[in-house]
Amino acid sequence: PEDWDKVLTVNLRGPMLCCKAALPRLADGSPIVFISSIAGLVAGSRLPAYDASKAALGGLMRHVALEGARRGIRANIVAPGLVDTPLGRLATQGRPSRGRTPVPFGRQATGWEIAYAALFLLSNESVYITAQTLAVDSGMTGIS
Predict the structure, then answer these.
(1) Which of 6, 50, 116, 128 is catalytic?
(2) 3-class DSSP state of 75
(3) Is 54 one of the catalytic residues?
(4) Which one, of 66, 82, 73, lies nearest residue 29 by Cα?
(5) What is the pTM of this model?
(6) pLDDT, tens digit, for every residue of 115-131?
(7) Active-site residue (options: 6, 20, 54, 128)
């Protein structure tokens, strides 16, 4: 239960408190982008608290999108798949199967590829997009 509570505090309570404080102060038309994980869309991380917290973040995002809609405040999620980062490589050392996970593009994403997705959702090019989850995963959730 302690690990469960810690994971939910970091992955769900933190974003909820940020939104609670920010929503009244945000300018009309402001964007909010949560960073989640494809673990919130499909089970498979082998960490039930992590999967549950990322799935619950989707519920929070939809609530924030609804609450902000009248002011044009939009809320969306970027849900990365496997990302080649120092932390990701460290995690892979403990789970060799992660390195063998079939990724349609044949490689893990870069941090920049995730950032570009977030930048799009923060930009004026996405002003009519809200309450959506953008999986940045080389198609892992769509074709596997």
Answers:
(1) 50
(2) strand
(3) yes
(4) 73
(5) 0.91
(6) 999 999 999 999 999 99
(7) 54
